[in-house]
Amino acid sequence: MDPFWPQQTNGPSLSHNRPYRERTKDSPFDLEIRSPLRRGPPAPRLTHRAKLEENKYGTEVQVDANGPPLGWVSHSGVVEPAETVAAYGARGQAVKGVCRAGGCNRRVELEPEALCQAGLGLLSMRQVKGLWRCQRIDGCGLDFHNEPPLHPLRLDQFIGRPNVRVRLRCRGDGCKFFRVWRVEEMIAGLTKRRHGDGRTEIEKLGAMMKTPCSLCKRSNWTADILWVSTDTMGWKALGERSFEQRGAG
To answer: What is the mean pLDDT of residues 112-128?
Structure first.
């Protein structure tokens, strides 16, 4: 029985594209009636890159060839980890949970690739976490945390992209100072000082900066990636000058 079609209780069953015979009141002849074809929504058009990832992660996720690396998205102009299960699988990032409730030693490990194979790739990881919580009267004490990704964001993933900049922000109390560099300039500076190279992870970049902030005189930096979509009117009109309002390029 097809779960998406209601079962006929009074009358003939309309099985998919299968004829049935019905005797009418006005005619002694049997009439053969064929149910209409049921067509689902058209399949999404996948880019070449998405087709390569489709079999790997068990789900159809459309990927923009000109967008951030697989598993990441641009939110308000900053590249951040995407929250879907398929994105966790692309980053190779497992999620583990430990129950903090008294008398419970329950442990959970969510493997994104296995979840994608089960058809959950398009759900957010937050939704999947909720499926594993128990129904204790005093509330579930399951505390989740993300493991470090096996495929983190690196500098060399953005080489040759004029719509990308590296931003270093000061994390001092109340300090909002920041600087912006081209990716190639940052790699050249790291290589010259032998602090890193193109394989340097963005998350570890801030800790490599030892120069004090020019405002608060503290050395407490964090790094992120600024991304301007090349499809916007602002980029088409200004190009790389779009970054001038965010700091020196």
So the answer is: 94
* Average pLDDT score over residue span 216-237: 87
Q: What is the mean pLDDT of residues 217-242?
A: 85
pLDDT > 50? residue 9: no
CB 140 within 8 A of CB 134: yes
Verify that 91 and 160 share a domain, yes or no.
no
Range of the domain at 211: 155-246
Domain limit, last residue, from 112, 146, 180? 146
User: Do 141 and 190 fall within a single domain?
Assistant: no
CA atoms within 13 A of residue 182's CA, in its CB half-sphere:
11
What total of structural domains would you count in the chain?
Answer: 2
Task: Give the end of a domain, one of 146, 170, 201.
Answer: 146
**Please, which pLDDT band fits residue 241 given cuts at 50, 70 and 90?**
confident
- Within the chain, residue ranges assigned H as helices are 48-57, 85-91, 112-117, 125-131, 183-193, 202-205, 233-238
As separate numbers, helices (DSSP H) first and strands (DSSP E) second, the chain gives: 7, 10
